[in-house]
Amino acid sequence: MTILHLARHTDWQHARSAGDYRVSTLGRTLDQEGFIHCSHDLTQLHEVHDTFYAHLTEPLVILEIDPTGLDIRDEGGYPHLYGPLPLHAVTTTRPYRPR
After folding, report:
1. CA 38, 43, 46: angle at the middle one, nearest 5?
2. CA neighbours closer than 13 Å in the CB half-sphere of residue 21
3. In a domain? residue 65
4. What's the whole-model pTM score?
């Protein structure tokens, strides 16, 4: 099973050089929010895009995450990651294409 996270390409590039990913949702960091907002599937990911990211023109990527060993809690129907996202847990990245 994997979970998904929608990220700005620039945030993902920064994480790759920093060693981990720490953005919760657009404009909110892990430190500010307390968790990283994720999605169970593409339907939820599209909802996140439409709510928070639809106005952006910069490239977005989908991070596919292996939740093994991560502190993932299902809250409000969405998975939340408590703690930074280690790079090794991201199994695939691909461009996000709005529906």
Report:
1. 75
2. 28
3. yes
4. 0.96
- The per-residue pLDDT for range 28-58, each reduced to its tens digit, is 999 999 999 999 999 999 999 999 999 999 9
Q: Is residue 69 part of a domain?
A: yes
At 12, which amino acid appears?
A: W
5 falls within a domain:
no
Which residue(s) pair with 63 in the sheet?
5, 93
Amino acid letter, residue 17: S
**Total structural domains in the chain?**
1
Tokens 């930074």 map to which residue? Answer: 84
Q: Which residues contact 76 (CB under 8 A, 6 or more apart)?
A: none
State how far the Cα of 30 lies from the Cα of 28, in Å rounded to an integer.
7
8 Å CB contact between 56 and 7 = no
